[in-house]
Automatic annotation (TrEMBL):
Signal peptide: none annotated. It comes from Micromonospora pisi. The keyword Signal does not apply. Residues 62-88 are annotated as: Disordered. Pfam families: DUF1980, DUF1980_C. The chain crosses the membrane at residues 33-54, 94-113. It comes from the Bacteria. This is Putative repeat protein (TIGR03943 family). PANTHER family: UPF0703 PROTEIN YCGQ (PTHR40047:SF1).
Length: 254
């Protein structure tokens, strides 16, 4: 792979990142607040690629016009040496493998982390610190992130939840005994550090749904606790009163 080919790959990579940044695709890789940094990085990649191409093509342009080139004699000697040596200098061909992730980003739209990732990792609640929680906002039911409900249920023992009805949205995953659980992935930065928040479902729990099906559940705090088979952390439960299937949200991560 010569310098021009490297610049083309860099240009494709910058273009792919820029395209993803201006669509909702980037939300499958990073948190929403990182969008400006993605755009800036993509622009820098594109500028670097264009400058590399212009720098490499400039001597060829001067030669085609018949303009003198200070390096002409030395280049001629190099070319002569190449003729006798049989081969010129090339970068390792393995560099072409860099184009695979570029094509994947341009042509493939992978789904967000879901039930498979949740099944392979322990619930993130095991590392959450104990803290005080503010009163719930107004509304019936109260719309809460899965992480907020689970933290209040585990570390506050449901004191800040009381008997209020809450509404949570997440995807269906499989629990330790094969029962459906509600899960949501949380990110610190990007999908590479994604961790699941798992929630057991009691009462009128959803049944007959395939993993990764998104649902909206309404219920109340339950003092029932389960154990995560992956890291043995506690999993809180929700006493479900009603549920309905919904479309996957624009922002799949919390």
């Amino acid at each position: 792979m010569n310098r021009q080919a490297q610049a083309v790959v860099l240009l494709l990579l910058g273009g792919a990142v820029l395209k993803a940044s201006f669509t909702e695709m980037y939300l499958r890789y990073v948190k929403e607040g990182l969008r400006p940094f993605l755009i800036a990085s993509a622009i820098l990649l594109i500028v670097a690629a264009v400058m590399t191409l212009l720098h490499d093509l400039r001597p060829a342009t001067r030669a085609n016009r018949g303009e003198p080139d200070g390096d002409h004699h030395e280049s001629h000697g190099d070319d002569h040496g190449h003729d006798h040596g049989g081969k010129g200098h090339h970068e390792p061909r393995v560099g072409w493998l860099l184009i695979l992730p570029v094509l994947g980003l341009l042509l493939v739209a992978p789904p967000a982390l879901g039930s498979y990732a949740a099944d392979q990792a322990g619930t993130a609640l095991g590392s959450q610190p104990l803290s005080d929680y503010p009163p719930l906002p107004d509304g019936d039911p109260v719309k809460l992130p899965v992480l907020d409900y689970a933290s209040r249920a585990i570390f506050d023992k449901g004191a800040s939840l009381g008997d209020r009805r809450v509404q949570l949205t997440g995807f269906v995953a499989t629990g330790a005994n094969g029962e459906p659980i509600l899960a949501r992935m949380i990110l610190s930065c990007c999908a590479a550090d994604g961790r699941p928040i798992k929630l057991g479902l009691a009462g009128e729990a959803p049944t007959g749904l395939a993993p990764d099906t998104w649902v909206e559940v309404v219920g109340r705090y339950s003092d029932k606790l389960g154990r995560d088979p992956v890291n043995d952390a506690e999993i809180p439960y929700l006493d479900v009163e009603s549920w309905r299937q919904v479309e996957a949200p624009k922002q799949p991560y919390e």
